[in-house]
Design goal:
83 residues; mainly alpha
Length: 83
């Protein structure tokens, strides 16, 4: 089974549906036993929805949007500490 560090590393690819079958299976198996990573995944989903200009999402200040887009474009998403 993968650890939290590896799960967080795979999270954005998972949300983009860019993982192969085996890494998806390992990622989802990890989520079944790890509340922390489930929370990280939910946060990532909500963050993605806010950045996506969805009219149902609350407005995000332009400086916050710009900073998030810069981080996402650079691939420098913090992974946190393994749990």
């Amino acid at each position: 089974m993968i650890d939290c560090r590896e799960a967080v590393r795979r999270m954005w690819a998972y949300l983009d549906h860019e993982l192969a079958t085996q890494p998806v299976t390992e990622f989802e198996a990890h989520l079944e036993t790890c509340q922390r990573c489930c929370g990280e995944l939910e946060f990532s989903r909500q963050l993605r929805a806010m950045v996506a200009d969805d009219e149902r999402s609350p407005a995000m200040p332009s400086h916050v949007r710009s900073r998030i887009e810069t981080i996402l474009a650079a691939g420098d998403v913090p992974s946190g500490e393994p749990g």
